Write a sequence for this structure.
């Protein structure tokens, strides 16, 4: 079997970029928490790289992309990557095929980072053992079915729902799972000093932004004009959202904040994700601007309601993923992604499908996540004690990030 070397090289690079996002997320979250809980939250991201990879090899890839059971989940025909060898190909001959192993690895990186996103919501409050149980259960019962339904030829794909790189599958699902976790676990009992290292937050944002090019542009799964469009759209949306957030925070707080700029950029990246390969640059600027405004307002709403979503996972990733998915239905253009949204003469059909799908997935992710935590708590206590909460690094892991 002869593979397209250009496409293969690009997808290996994109896979590496998406992999880099998980350490980037660990730095981003790590900088936002206090000095005594840095390692605990960073470890929750890094451990997903190991646990999720094993689960993906054992059954995850097969449940997502092999066969179909009721449009909800795949089967186990390709468990342990059975039937995949060096000559197995992915893609069409016209577009240039790549080794199927590359596609397996690329999708695995998405599976690794998605549950790690949730951890920012319940920082300082969850024991490590129950978190590992939640990680495995959430992948099996939420993430794998969603991947199959949207990207694996399942129910939502058959209905015509579009999600270029994970607005529904990754961000809406993780964001709503985060909100469910906040409600179940409850507020922190020990006041956290918070944001011990803004430079770490900046480093994490830089790695996330860099990796997001592989996340979005790589989702075209080949090298063509749409790949370039998704790449540029990613940068434009992040930039507009960052500046809008900066301005809003500047007006509200009477000074420009670095963390506001960084958080806005992440909101813009999350919001453009579902639409990156379906809209033009002008639309990405609008989407980024809306992301900066809406996600900023969502953070304020969360604060006013007293929800202890410690690192704004719901407001940035959840709301961003939902808004981006809906705006895809408005701004999609046939010249980019082969389908027109509401504002390009496509009528309300796509917008309706996007709205219903993201609402349904959000509810699904919220209910199942809350239910899983409830069941895990029946077996082993999910929440740390008040004594442990003040210094998770020492109490849970016997380590310290800094000399005290």
């Amino acid at each position: 079997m002869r593979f397209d070397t250009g496409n293969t090289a690009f997808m290996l690079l994109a896979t590496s970029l998406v992999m880099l996002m998980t350490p980037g997320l660990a730095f981003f979250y790590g900088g936002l928490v206090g000095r005594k809980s840095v390692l605990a939250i960073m470890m929750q991201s890094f451990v997903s790289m190991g646990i999720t990879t094993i689960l993906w090899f054992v059954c995850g890839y097969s449940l997502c992309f092999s066969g179909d059971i009721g449009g909800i989940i795949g089967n186990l025909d390709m468990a342990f990557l059975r039937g995949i060898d060096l000559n197995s190909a992915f893609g069409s001959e016209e577009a240039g095929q790549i080794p199927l192993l590359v596609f397996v690895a690329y999708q695995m990186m998405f599976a690794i980072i998605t549950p790690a996103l949730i951890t920012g919501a319940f920082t300082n409050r969850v024991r490590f053992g129950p978190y590992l149980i939640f990680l495995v259960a959430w992948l099996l019962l939420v993430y794998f079915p969603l991947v199959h339904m949207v990207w694996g030829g399942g129910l939502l794909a058959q209905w015509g729902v579009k999600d270029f790189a994970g607005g529904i599958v990754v961000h809406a699902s993780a964001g709503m799972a985060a909100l469910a976790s906040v409600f179940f676990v409850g507020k922190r009992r020990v006041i956290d000093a918070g944001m011990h290292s803004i430079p770490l937050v900046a480093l994490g944002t830089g790695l996330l932004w860099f990796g997001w090019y592989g996340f979005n542009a790589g989702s075209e799964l080949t090298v063509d004009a749409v790949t370039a469009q998704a790449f540029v759209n990613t940068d434009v949306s992040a930039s507009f959202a960052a500046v809008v957030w900066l301005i809003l925070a500047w007006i509200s707080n009477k000074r420009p904040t670095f963390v506001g700029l960084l958080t806005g950029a992440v909101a813009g990246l999350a919001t453009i994700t579902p639409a990156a390969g379906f809209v033009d640059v002008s639309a990405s600027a609008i989407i980024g601007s809306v992301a900066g405004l809406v996600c900023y307002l969502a953070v304020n709403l969360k604060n006013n309601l007293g929800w202890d979503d410690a690192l704004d996972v719901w407001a940035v990733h959840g709301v961003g993923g939902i808004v981006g998915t809906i705006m895809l239905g408005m701004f999609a253009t046939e010249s980019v992604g082969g389908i027109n949204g509401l504002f390009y003469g496509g009528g309300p059909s796509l917008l309706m499908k996007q709205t219903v799908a993201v609402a349904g997935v959000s509810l699904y992710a919220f209910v199942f996540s809350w239910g899983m935590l409830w069941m895990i708590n029946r077996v082993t206590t999910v929440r740390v004690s008040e004594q442990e909460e003040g210094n998770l690094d020492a109490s849970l892991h016997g380590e310290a990030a800094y000399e005290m």
The longest strand covers residues 89-90.
